[in-house]
Every structure is written in C-alpha cells, then in structure tokens.
Amino acid sequence: MAITSEMVKELRTKTGAGMMDCKEALNSSNGDFDKAIDYLRKKGMSAATKRSSKAAKDGTIASYIHMGGKIGVMVELNCETDFVAKTDDFQTIARDLAMHVAASNPTYVRPDDVPADVLEREKEIYRSQALAEKKPEKIWDKIIEGKLNKYYEEVCLVKQKFIKNTDVTIETMINNLIAKTGENIIIRRFARFQLGEEIK
Question: Which residue ranges are recorded for the region named Involved in Mg(2+) ion dislocation from EF-Tu (predicted)?
Fold first, then answer.
C-alpha cells in the first residue's frame, strides 16, 4: 500500500511522533493506523526502557499562569544534557506539561508516587462496591485492577490523556520524546497553585 504524506501527517497529529517514525510505522504496518500506533508505542517504550538507567540531571523548569493569575503551575522536566534541554521540542513539551497540569489538576506524577495507605483505601472501596453489586469473589481482583487503572488515569500525570491531543497520554508523549532525542527524560515534579484554595 502506498503511504501518502496525508497519512503520515494524520498519524503524527494522533501520536506526536516524528515524521520519519510515522512513515516507518505506516510502512511496517502496511497503512493500518492501529498497528502503526502500536508500533510507535513499542518503539517509544523500548527506547524509554533503554534510556531509563541514564541519569537525567539537566532540563528545565517551565511555568504557566492561567485565568488572569488565578492558577499557576511549575513543572520540572529533566533530561541528560543541556543540548537537549535547549531544543524547541523539549521546551515546548515542558510548557505543555505546565498547561496540562493547570487544566487537569493531577495529584501525583506517576502511580509509584501514590502512598500505600491511599491505595489500600481505594482498594477497600472497590471491594465494598463489588460486594454490594454481588459480583463473584473470584473476579474481585480483576475488578479492583481495572478500577485502579481508572484511578491512576485521574490522579497520575503520566497516565492522563494530554489535553491538546487526547489520543495520547502524557507517558506516550514523553516516551516519543525519549525516542526522538535518545535521552532519558523524566517529569521530576510539579506544583500547582490555585488562588484561595487553602483559605477556609
């Protein structure tokens, strides 16, 4: 199947991956978009896995102010070198992350950051729901796992769908940047301030 520039452009819009990577993915999947997306995700994940042991000590701190000064966000995005930190792609994603945090208000960066007692409380709620709905006990673990994944999508930044392109998660976006730059990239932390939120 002939891969057109329109197809490459559409896949790039959906995934945020580079043009050459999109073309390669479409060629390897014979124009099948779902397979091409899987191909890009696997490529991004394998690149991310390879780089994850490298120290990410450089990077940038990006900020975003929303609603005329009512919400403010700071995000620290780390990479391995000053060279990558100064690229337009890296700076743009850092700013996009700050804007995303302002809009989506996550509580944690990643699932590993959720405290054990909070997780246990969530699991207890899901168990009670399964019992109340008279679900067979043998499928409770599967139900709890599914609901936990939904919970992570709500409260963990990396599991959320990117507000400017809901076809990709923040995690996929970072993995695509890792694949593109060849460096380990980590969202270190964020802080979100909302005017008056602590005032009783």
Answer: 81-84
